Amino acid sequence: LYDYKYEVMGLLLHALQLEQDCGVGPHTISIPRLEPAFNAPAAITPPHPVSDHDFKKLVAIIRMAVPYTGMILSTRETPEMRDEVFALGISQISAGSRTNPGGYQEDNSDAFRAAQFNLGDTRTLDEVILDITERGHIPSFCTACYRLGRTGKDFMDLAKPGLIQKFCQTNAVFSFKEYLLDYASPATRAAGDKLIRKMIDETFKTRRKKFVMDKLREIEDGRRDAYI
Predict the structure, then answer these.
(1) Is the pLDDT of residue 117 over 90?
(2) Domain span at residue 210?
(3) Residue 182 CB: number of other CB atoms within 10 A?
(4) How far apart are CA 176 and CA 189, in angstroms?
(5) Which of helix, strand or coil describes residue 36?
């Protein structure tokens, strides 16, 4: 809605004030660009459109300025743009989204007229997961921190020095394995299992590797909701 440089500066100063006044910074930062929407003139002709070049630059700036935060990208962006900004700091994306009332029903003929905004990425969840996997990224469906109370200052104490990865990597493997068994297509399951084996071999040390392998066998035997 305004010059992106001013908006990014305001966002970062807000994050700084949160840390100074509350002792915690933002858990996540989302960076949606305005996309055309029915009967929304400001969305159809944004007063301050952000170019692809500037968008990628602001993603990198926010990542460097707030290295511990999760950065969210919505389905407004195209698959090509999403692939590029993964390398610049995006850590969370939506997939298979619908933005109109009743959009997840099979009959979606009035989607544009009722949609909140146009989608740039219309792939299914499985297609997105397969693409992410083939690019060497482990998709994670983990919600352990919320459920175990690792929020607020407790989360920041782990996230800022990078200690959270000892939970994230393991939980990503567990939650991804559950997805592969319960929802994935055969192609996605094969690609995912291959990536999990590669990650286990390259990431986990002997003691943690045994723990992860034991839990994966439990998941294959029917256990669900595994996390640490």
Answers:
(1) no
(2) 145-220
(3) 9
(4) 10
(5) coil
